[in-house]
Amino acid sequence: MTGDEKDKNRDRDYRNGDSQDEDLRTRFAELRREEELRVPQFAFPPPRLAGQDRRWGTGRLIAGAACVAALVAAALFLRFVPSQPARTGQPVATLTEWRSPTDFLLETPGRELLRSVPAIGVWQDYTGVSKPKQKHPQVQKQVLP
Amino acid sequence: MKQTDLQGELERLHPASFGWALWCCDRQREEAQEVLQTAYLKVLEGKASFDGNSSLRTWFFGVIRRTAGERRRRRWLREQILVRWFSREPAPLSAPDPEAAATGSENSRALREALSGLPARQREVLHLVFYQDMTVEEASRVLSVSLGTARTHFSRGKAQLRELLARQEGKNDWR
């Protein structure tokens, strides 16, 4: 017996030979009989789906037209809108010259103290408070003869 | 094969094809009709062409199974999009053929219930062999699996189906 024949025999065994399968076969046959009574009518070509397909065709056409219109609009926009801002006669402030409108908030009292080196003996009013008036004149020490 | 011959063959196969489509769609009748019509349309438009390597039935059942799978995936994707983007509940599929469930015999109902408890692959092999009267080899072609795999599913499916049916009968006796 060749391999093919063995396979076929085994397949037949799987299909028909097993007598225990008869119960299952009977049950399935009963189910099939019941279901065959309720099979819808054969329609070839299927009319409803053919209609659906046409609708899809129209939908695709509309979508395609919308895509083309969007591309044309984008092309026109890119064509007529300049890519760089127009230059005016006024000079543009460079980055180093530019000052923020709220820059004054950073000006705190005593800021000069951090920027400059104080000189000894020279009064510098870092706090913005005026120099206190001398209430008492300084008494000069008199050198005794 | 000529268009008229093909149409004749498909008409002859129609009841069996519908039965198979029903099982591929978890027994939802409307969905099965849609699947079958889509499969017919595929044949008509040449998107699925019969190459003659297998029987027409095996080939067409494969087309039905793939079509059902495509529709299932598309529906799943649509549900994901609807739920995620719009937080809206998608329309649920209709229940598995309530009329058939009500009118079928006790045996058929028990069989349907037991089959629904099996893994999909086992259920498909059993359906093809017992319901469609195919050989296991033909079933393996429809399911695009090896013969050995189909035999394994067949044996395990049978054992499990018997067990489920016996359990159901035991339950009914107890009642």
Structure description:
The complex is a heterodimer of chains A (145) and B (175). Chain A has helices spanning 3-17, 22-36, 47-80, 111-115. Chain A is an all-alpha fold and 145 residues long. In chain B, 77% of the residues lie in helices and 0% in strands. Chain B has helices at 3-24, 29-45, 56-86, 98-103, 106-116, 120-131, 136-143, 147-174. The longest helix of chain B is centred in the middle third of the chain and has 31 residues, at 56-86. Chain B is globular. Chain A binds chain B through residues 7, 11-12, 14-15, 21, 24-25, 27-28, 30-32, 34-36, 38-40, 42-46, 48-50, 53, and chain B through 7, 10-11, 14-15, 18-19, 22, 33-34, 37-38, 40-41, 44, 99-100, 103-105, 107-108, 110-112, 126-127, 129-131, 134-137, 147, 151, 154, 158, 161-162, 165.
Short précis:
Chain A has four helices and no strands. With 145 residues, chain A is mainly alpha-helical.
The assigned structural class of chain B equals mainly alpha
Largest sheet of chain B: none
Gap from first CA to last CA of chain B: 56 Å
- Categorize the overall geometry of chain A: elongated
What is the number of E strands of chain B?
0
Average pLDDT figure of chain A: 73
Number of DSSP helical runs of chain B: 8
Give the termini separation of chain A. Answer: 151 Å
Instruction: Please provide the ordered H/E string of secondary-structure elements of chain A.
Output: HHHH
The proportion of residues in beta strands of chain B is under 5%
The stretches of 5 or more residues of chain A where confidence is low (pLDDT under 50) are none
State the order of secondary-structure elements of chain B, H for helix, E for strand.
HHHHHHHH
Question: What can be said about the biggest beta sheet of chain A?
Answer: none
> What is the subunit organization of this protein?
heterodimer
What is the C-alpha radius of gyration of chain B, as a whole number of Å?
18 Å
The most extensive interface, with participating residues per chain, is: A-B, 28 and 41 residues
Approximate strand percentage of chain A: under 5%
Radius of gyration of chain A: 50 Å
